[in-house]
Amino acid sequence: DAGVIQSPRHEVTEMGQEVTLRCKPISGHNSLFWYRQTMMRGLELLIYFNNNVPIDDSGMPEDRFSAKMPNASFSTLKIQPSEPRDSAVYFCASSFGGGNEKLFFGSGTQLSVL
Amino acid sequence: SQQGEEDPQALSIQEGENATMNCSYKTSINNLQWYRQNSGRGLVHLILIRSNEREKHSGRLRVTLDTSKKSSSLLITASRAADTASYFCATRGSGGYNKLIFGAGTRLAVHP
Question: Do B42 and A101 lie within an 8 Å CB cutoff?
Fold first, then answer.
């Protein structure tokens, strides 16, 4: 299995631009999570999907952030417009079950907003 | 907000020594998990211990859980340079869906 695949690996953009991060979960997994990691705040859960349906988006910082999961094998996290404070590593993770088991993480997208 | 708090924040040891990391949490849990993160990489699951378990082993890893003290420890025996990484505990609350909340992590450096 290829594991959770994220793209791009690195993204550098200018303030105000739209950023789209992509994730392919492990085949057969029905739960998908987007996390953000910063030195100041550590790992924060942004949104959780179960069977392609958003279950918990309470961690999405503001309306500039949106996430979709159009099918079981693909999810996107979009930031529009981006701001320098959005600079972080964004991780996608997947699991099998209702979110109570172990997570498999992708390698992350390092986002820098200038 | 972070549920788990790891201690120490950083640990530096020599190869062959044991490394112990501790995690404290605040509310009742369904399970507690430990993850490792190598620099520039994603987190890798190490071990999951449920609230009704007290100890689990996996290779050189030993995890204990004390629900009365709301604490857990991760012991890595006979450490290797390849164990150099950050280690995170993560807790999942009890009752229905609850977020997996990560602590700030312990940075472990194992010197050859």
Answer: no
Helix (H, G, I), strand (E, B) or coil at A86: helix
The SS3 of residue B59 is coil
pLDDT in tens, A53-98: 999 899 998 899 999 999 999 999 999 999 999 999 999 999 987 6
The residues facing B2 across adjacent strands are none
Residue B28: which pLDDT band, with cuts at 50, 70 and 90?
A: confident
Size of chain A in residues: 114
Are the CB atoms for A95 and A29 separated by under 8 Å? Answer: yes
Neighboring chain A residues of B35 at a CB cutoff of 8 Å: 103, 105
d(CA A10, CA A108): 8
Shortest CB distance from A106 goes to which of B33, B42, B48? Answer: B42
Q: Do A20 and A77 touch, CB atoms closer than 8 A? A: yes
> Which residues 13-72 on chain B approach chain A with CB closer than 8 angstroms?
30-31, 33, 35, 41-45, 48
Are A42 and B100 a contacting pair at CB < 8 A?
no
Say which residue the tokens 């859980």 belong to.
Answer: B65
Kind of pairing, strands A5-7 and A19-24?
antiparallel
Facing residues of B34 across strands? B47, B89
